[in-house]
Amino acid sequence: MSALNQLEQLYRAYLEGSGLQDSEAVWVSDAPRKGDVTVTFRPRPSTQFVNEFPKTATETDLAQKVWWWRFVGEGTDPGIVFPRAFEGDNFFPELQMGHFLDAMQNSAFFYEFRARYNDRYQWDFGAPWPNCSVEKRAYLECQLPSNYPRKLWVSERPGPVWVALPKLNFALGDKTLLDFVKKQLVKIRKEKGLPHPPPSKGARRRPLSWLSLELMDKKKYLDTVFNDSERKVVHSARRKYLENCKALGLDP
After folding, report:
1. pLDDT, position 99
2. Which end of the chain is more exposed for a tag (fewer CB within 10 A), N or C?
């Protein structure tokens, strides 16, 4: 199979093996009647981003129709990349953006870099990452999972590293409560023999740099010539991409 459609074929095999169905096949205007009830689905929300790379483009075109990652992060409208299912819906777009920042940046970057590798300019799933189905995004995330825990708490303690703190009196000031919690952390780690991880362990990572993708697009559409610094950025991203392909058993 060609490198271009290898990911798509692996994804289809995953669906068949798991018995799942891609939600893109479920979104229809009218579902079959069941008795006296006809279930209707809203048209699937769309984004402003194109499903095919343009043949020509200005930098403004790229920024508005291709570089979707510029619309993710603090101070952006989550509904641009994660469309609202209905007017006024903010909960689910914000939830999806938070999950993306925590867990899906690496896999989304890999998918977008793959589309541009060796001047290919075609997405394996036929659409940019924001326009892929939930199942396709989840599949990509499983291939390149995050390497840090996402949860700070759970309703039940599943293992020795999960420890319940005493109930706190929120009538007290924040400084008093924080001082108490810090002392409890030291005490509990010592009593249970738990190691003290580095300060950044489990912290939300800074937003990934997507500069290498933008540089590649500028070279293709705007005939930009890289300087030494830009060349290193693209080379570093290319090296990491090839390492991921090797680890995943994918042809570049």
Report:
1. 86
2. N
